[in-house]
Amino acid sequence: MNPAIVLAAASALVPWIDVHAHLEPREAGASVQAALAAMQRENATAIFLLTLPDTFDHPGRYDAEALLPAVDPHRGKLMVLGGGGTLNAMIQRTAPDKVDAALREQFRERAEELLRRGVAGFGEMTAEHLAGATPYQSSPPDHPLFLLLAGISAESGAPIDLHMEAVPRAMTLPGGLRLRENIAAFERLLAHDRRANVIWAHAGADGTGRRTPDLCRRLLQRNPNLSMELKVDPRNPGLTPLLEGGKVRAEWLKLFEEFPDRFVIGTDQHYPEPAADVQRWQAAVVLLNQLPADLQRKIGSENALRLYSRRLPR
What we know:
By secondary structure, the protein is α/β, with parallel strands linked by helices. Helices cover about 35% and strands about 20% of the residues. The strands form three sheets. Strands 1, 2, 3, 4, 5, 6, 9, 10, 13 and 14 form a ten-stranded mixed beta sheet that branches. It has a two-stranded antiparallel ribbon with strand order 7-8. Strand 1, helix 2 and strand 2 form a beta-alpha-beta unit.
């Protein structure tokens, strides 16, 4: 992507909501102030801050408690999703056939504790996460604890934000990493309780090249409780990018028009902003500003407000 194109459209034409961003937990106060300052430049009305999906043995692990004290005074503009450092870690640590009644109760108690603390949803969770800021993680999306979380999501109205590389068939990535097929299990998760809203993160920025508009279309057609976040990474665009030459690709735009109520913007922006000339939120704004006016409103904010309606401050 041409940075000049991104920077030329640094502010959104309509107010919008970023449903997937991250803070630096060790400097939560400064990170919150950085996010609030950026909102004015972005023309954003709210940012949802997610905990990273993590494992118990990773030294950088944290959960919502590291963010909430700094975020709480700004509730309404900033919301927190939790469970990445605990619920997700419990799933990653436990083989599906090792889940017993005691673990299920521990998992439910932790999820309910997060809800009492005021999280807007559960995330970032993961079923297939290539190594990066956190270690490589893989767990079937129909893991018994994922199914339990779907039930809790349905009861509470707290959506599940799920990071999952698309693997329609078993495959081996360059470098030798073998990935298991996961789409059938993903659909079992979605079917487990249709009242649970699952938001599949990072459409347009996948690492397998298999998350195509056609695959997304089939899943959206069959699963009414599935929504998708749109991500544009100007430096690592992924294998199925939403933009080409700074313009939205026709096959993606057609999908947005077919399912106008099923997409939201999730930039994966980190605050404070990294020392780079182009930020992820700026690239997302380039996409948003090209959409027809009705899609700008729906994808920019209306869909997010509907998905999180039961968890937003009143």
